[in-house]
Amino acid sequence: MREYTVLAVLSVVVTLLLDRRLGVHVFRRAQYWIALAIVFAFQVLVDGWLTKLSAPIVIYSPEHFLGVRFPWDIPVEDYLFGFSMVTSTIVLWEWGKRTRGETTPVDRQVDGQSDRQVDRQSDRQSDRQPDRHFDTERGSSA
C-alpha cells in the first residue's frame, strides 16, 4: 500500500476543510500565493538536495509512495505535505488573529469591507464608550 501517498492526499483534504470550516479563506489572498511560491522555491532547493538519487540523504521505500519524482528526484508527495504544513499553519494563524479581534487591511478587503467602513464602525463604537482618564490629583481613574 502507498501509505505516504495516502497520507499526503489526506493532509491536503484536511487542510482544505480546515480553511473552509474556520472561514479564513486564505486561497482568496494574493499574499498567500506569493508566500507559497517562495516556500516552494526553497522546498525545491532543499528537498532536491536531500532526495537526489545520485547521493540521497533521505531514502524512500518504493512500496510506500507513487515513485513519481519531479524535479531533481523530489517525490511529488513531498509537495503535498509542504502545501499542507504551510497552509494549515497560515490558516490557524489567521483564525487565531480573528478570534482575538485583530484584523489587517487585507482581512477587511477579503471580508468585503473597505478601510472607510471599518473606520466608521470603530468611530461609532468609541462614541458609545465613556471616556476614562486618569485623575493625577487623586491617583485613580475617574
UniProtKB/TrEMBL annotation:
Intracellular or extracellular location(s): Membrane
A single MF term (Gene Ontology): intramolecular lyase activity
A GO biological-process term: carotenoid biosynthetic process
Keyword flag Ligase: no
Bilayer disposition of the protein: Multi-pass membrane protein
Protein keywords: Carotenoid biosynthesis, Isomerase, Membrane, Transmembrane, Transmembrane helix
Annotated GO CC locations: membrane
Pathway: Carotenoid biosynthesis
Chain segments annotated as transmembrane: 33-50
Region span, Disordered: 102-142
Pfam families, per the entry: Lycopene_cyc (PF18916)
Residue spans of biased composition, Basic and acidic residues class: 108-142
InterPro entries the UniProt entry points to: Lycopene_cyclase_dom
All residue ranges annotated as the Lycopene cyclase domain in the record: 4-95
Name recorded for this polypeptide: Lycopene cyclase
Top-level taxonomy: Bacteria, Bacillati, Actinomycetota, Actinomycetes, Micrococcales
